[in-house]
Amino acid sequence: ETGVTQTPRHLVMGMTNKKSLKCEQHLGHNAMYWYKQSAKKPLELMFVYSLEERVENNSVPSRFSPECPNSSHLFLHLHTLQPEDSALYLCASSQAAGGTGRYGELFFGEGSRLTVL
Amino acid sequence: DQQVKQNSPSLSVQEGRISILNCDYTNSMFDYFLWYKKYPAEGPTFLISISSIKDKNEDGRFTVFLNKSAKHLSLHIVPSQPGDSAVYFCVPGENQGGKLIFGQGTELSVKP
Hints:
The complex is a heterodimer of chains A (about 120) and B (about 110).
Chain A: E1 4-7, E2 10-13, E3 18-25, E4 31-37, E5 44-50, E6 53-57, E7 64-70, E8 73-79, E9 87-94, E10 107-108, E11 112-116
Parallel strand pairs in A: 2-11
Antiparallel strand pairs in A: 1-3, 3-8, 4-5, 4-9, 5-6, 7-8, 9-10, 9-11
Chain B: E1 4-5, E2 10-14, E3 19-25, E4 32-38, E5 45-51, E6 56-59, E7 62-67, E8 72-77, E9 86-93, E10 106-111
Parallel strand pairs in B: 2-10
Antiparallel strand pairs in B: 1-3, 3-8, 4-5, 4-9, 6-7, 7-8, 9-10
């Protein structure tokens, strides 16, 4: 296992469902991120965890709930989503210090494609 | 308030020619600039970076030019290859508590 892995790769859910996206990094990094990519929009930063502590929450609705149990794992819990939440959700990791900046170079997973019906 | 703009959503170039992808920014506090490349159904991958104290950084076929007075940077790919076809994101960042801000991306298509 190398890099950043995300599961599931594809998820279809109804508006009343509860589901979770999982991210695991095998790079020894201590910062992890959730990004959202909607069609025709730039990547939007959702959450940042550094040393398992949430350091950034970019005004994300409460129907998205992140969890970082340790420095290698990051979850995004989803409940009562809306169709406009359909997007590609990307997880990334980095060294929190050093590199090219405070958050360093990002290493992304392949993303979880979410469709909300 | 868009702090970084990639005004060309797409660019088509012939194989062997030069590809030039442009990026404009508004925040003079950015300390470094990254370029990421993204293939369909994959996450972005880091390509090349430049510090704000430099005006050029070269890595093989890829060169980044930075014009701080104009708040403009560009990524040059020469010679362009079909495998370079991807979406390219300009990503500025700050050392002091900043977060990486992604541009809208430019989709490059290199035709054989």
